[in-house]
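QA checklist item 7 of 12: single-chain prediction sanity check.
[x] sequence parsed
[x] length recorded as 436
[x] structure emitted
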Amino acid sequence: MRVAIIGTGYVGLVSGACFADFGHIVTCVDKDASKIEKLHAGVMPIYEPGLDSLVAKNVREERLFFTTDAADAVKDADAVFIAVGTPSRRGDGHADLSYVYAAAEEIASLMNGFTVIVTKSTVPVGTGDEVEAIIRRVRPDGDFAVVSNPEFLREGAAIKDFKIPDRVVVGTDDDRARQVMKELYRPLFLNETPILFTERRTSELIKYAANAFLAVKITFINEMADLCEKVGANVQEVSRGIGLDGRIGKKFLNAGPGYGGSCFPKDTLALTKTANDYGSPVRIVDTVVEVNAARKKAMAAKVIAAMGGDVKGKTIGVLGLAFKQNTDDMRDAPSLDILPALTAAGARVVAYDPEAMKEAAHLLSGIEFAGSAYAAIDGADAMVIITEWDQFRALDFDRIKGAMKSNIVIDLRNIYSPEDMARYGFAYTSIGRPVV
C-alpha cells in the first residue's frame, strides 16, 4: 500500500520506517527542509536505538522516502497519517491542535480518490470529528474516512513496540477504512496481535486513559517509597510483593524522581482539562499531576539533605539528564527541576548523559558538562544518579572512590543495592530504602 505520513517527529518517523519495513511504500512529509535534508543524509533527528539502520535499509530498498512537498505523497496515498505534535497549550494546559488542523486542511486540498486519513497524534476526544469537518468544508465532494489510530510507543523501545505491540487500536465505523487499516497492519494479524476496532471517540480516549493509568501507577509507588522511608521498609520489595499479583502487574512500579517525557505530563494534563470541560472531573489524575510536579522539585532537597543540609561551594557529579534511558528526550525530565535548584543553592554541578547533553545545553544554564561518567564525578563531593542508563549500572566503585572528594552517593533510580554500597564504604541514599 502507499502511505503518506505528515510529520517526521518521534511518532511519524518510527511509524514510517516500520510501515516501510512491513513492505508498504511510505513517504514522510515535513515542512522543515533542514530535517528532510538530514534524513536524506541518514542523520536522525532523534536518538532511538536501531532507528538509523531501519531507516537506511528501507531507503536503500526504495520503500521509504522523505520530502517537504506533500502533494505527490498525498494524492497517491491509500492512507495519510497525521503525526504532528500536540504540545500542551500555553495558558490552559489543553492540547494544542493547531498543527493537526493545519495538516487536515492541507490533506483535504491534495487527496485524490478514496483516502483514509488517520490521526496518529495524541488528541483529545472529539478531535476526529473536527478533522472530518475541516476536510468536508475544504472538499465537499471528497471521498474519505477519518480514523483514530493512537500510538503506544515507548521511547527507547519504539521499534519493538510498533512491530510486536500489546495491541493495535483503530477507531472507525467505515467498512472501507477498516479494510485499509487491516491491510496496513496485516503482518501483525499474522502474528496474532490483538487489533481492537472501536468507535473513533473511544479510540481517542483509550490513549489518554492508558497513559493516565500508567502515570497513576508510577505516582502510587513513589508515594509508597516516601512511606517506606518513614517506616523503615523497602519499596523494591513492596513493588515485587504487589507486582506479583496478576491483577496489578510488575511494570511501572519502579520508584524514582517522578515521571517526565513527551507523553505522560502533557497527556495527563490534557485528560484532566477535557474531563473538566465535560463536567466529569478525573480527580485521581488531577492529584497525580500535582503530586508528580511536587516530587520532581522535592528531589533537590533530598540531595541537599544527603549532603548534610548545605551544598554551597560543593561539587555534585550528576549521571543522567534525559527523562529515561535510551533516549535524548529532555521534555519534562526530572533533571530540569533538580539541577537548577542545586545550582541556586550554591552547588557546582557537572553532568554527563550519553545522548541528551546537546539538548540539555539549551535548557540548563549554569551546568558544566563532562565527557564521561568518571569525568563528571572527578573531584566531586557527591555523585547523583538521575537517569538509569545501562552504562551506569556497573560502575567501577574503586575508581569512583579514588576520584571523589567524599563518599556520598544519591541514587534516584535505585540501580544499586544498599548492601553493595555499604560494602564499598559509601554513604548511600536511594528512594524508599534505608539510608546507608
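[x] summary fact logged: The mean pLDDT is 96.
[ ] second reviewer sign-off
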